[in-house]
Design brief:
Elements (H helix, E strand, L loop, with lengths): L4 E5 L5 H14 L6 H11 L7 E7 L2 E13 L4 E11 L8 H15 L5 E2 L7 H10 L15
Parallel strand pairs: 4-5
Antiparallel strand pairs: 1-2, 2-3, 3-4
Length: about 150
């Protein structure tokens, strides 16, 4: 029998578990290793004055997943949504519903706050994640662009 998945808000005592999974998330997306980035994002999560929050997923007392999120304004609809920045599960437990459980909790949080949507992006080649996302959400028509800041 598999232990149930428990999702809860991150606490300062979760620092090493969160950092382990966030670092693995960054490696998955082939981002340049950077401890300063990991430290900065962790500092945002544990700072009540910052907008970034995190959930952890545990099974059998082991932290196996993270979801970093924040609220965002939606001027076109005059509403506020919940933005899922990072979703990652330990590769050894993939396929056990960890990601689905984290998304479900984010949907519950959004509903409890009266938010209009839970939204996220993923890489076009992340077919494994997209199978889950196609099951729990609706793919939008929007294409994402990034522009570099310039003076």
């Amino acid at each position: 029998m598999t232990a149930p998945v428990v999702v809860r808000p991150v606490s300062p005592a979760d620092e090493s578990d969160w950092k382990r999974l966030f670092t693995a998330y960054r490696e998955f997306y082939k981002l340049t290793p950077d401890d300063a980035v990991v430290e900065r994002v962790w500092s945002w999560i544990v700072d009540a004055d910052q907008e970034t929050n995190a959930l952890l997923a545990e099974t059998g007392g082991v932290v196996v997943g993270i979801a970093d999120y924040r609220e965002f304004a939606r001027p076109s609809t005059g509403s506020v949504g919940l933005w899922l920045d990072d979703l990652f599960t330990d590769p050894t437990v993939r396929g056990r519903g960890i990601g689905r459980t984290l998304i479900t909790e984010l949907q519950r949080i959004a509903a409890s706050r009266g938010l209009s949507v839970v939204r996220w992006i993923t890489a076009a080649d992340n077919a494994t994640a997209q199978r889950l996302y196609d099951d729990v959400a609706v793919k939008t028509q929007w294409v994402t662009y990034d522009a570099q800041p310039r003076a």
